Amino acid sequence: MKKEEPKKESFWKKKKEAWIKERKAMTKKERKEQNIFLIIVSFCLFLILLCSFGFVQYGLQLHHLKEVQSSVEKEATSLSSERRQLQIKIKELNDPEYVAKLARARYFLSKDGEQIYVFPKDSDSGDTAEESTSSSAEPAQTKE
């Protein structure tokens, strides 16, 4: 191995010396043309590198925007379904019969001559109390 190392050094030394001789042998015009060529190649490589970074950034931004679009579409879908439900609720609340039924069920309001019976909680169902209405006008039917 020791013999191979000096050969490598001599090979690179010879290459370097050959390049230096070649550079010296070139005329000013040839060196100027070579320098211009290297500048143009460097500029082209810079542009290619710049464009590739731009495309990568564009791809990342596009991916982010697609994620935002899908989340906005999901939100729009949920809001439209909520809107439909609210419109149905508005129609129901504009109906006097529904409002009266709702008032009787939630707030134990009754019509004239109507009696309300509240039964204890049933162990099988999840309701807190069952409600029953009767249109009887006789107070003797109520439990006291």
UniProtKB/TrEMBL annotation:
<feature type="region of interest" description="Disordered">
    <location>
        <begin position="119"/>
        <end position="144"/>
    </location>
</feature>
<dbReference type="Pfam" id="PF04977">
    <property type="entry name" value="DivIC"/>
</dbReference>
<protein>
    <recommendedName>
        <fullName>Cell division protein DivIC</fullName>
    </recommendedName>
</protein>
<dbReference type="InterPro" id="IPR007060">
    <property type="entry name" value="FtsL/DivIC"/>
</dbReference>
<feature type="compositionally biased region" description="Low complexity">
    <location>
        <begin position="131"/>
        <end position="144"/>
    </location>
</feature>
<dbReference type="InterPro" id="IPR039076">
    <property type="entry name" value="DivIC"/>
</dbReference>
<dbReference type="GO" id="GO:0051301">
    <property type="term" value="P:cell division"/>
</dbReference>
<keyword id="KW-0812">Transmembrane</keyword>
<keyword id="KW-1133">Transmembrane helix</keyword>
<keyword id="KW-0472">Membrane</keyword>
<feature type="transmembrane region" description="Helical">
    <location>
        <begin position="36"/>
        <end position="60"/>
    </location>
</feature>
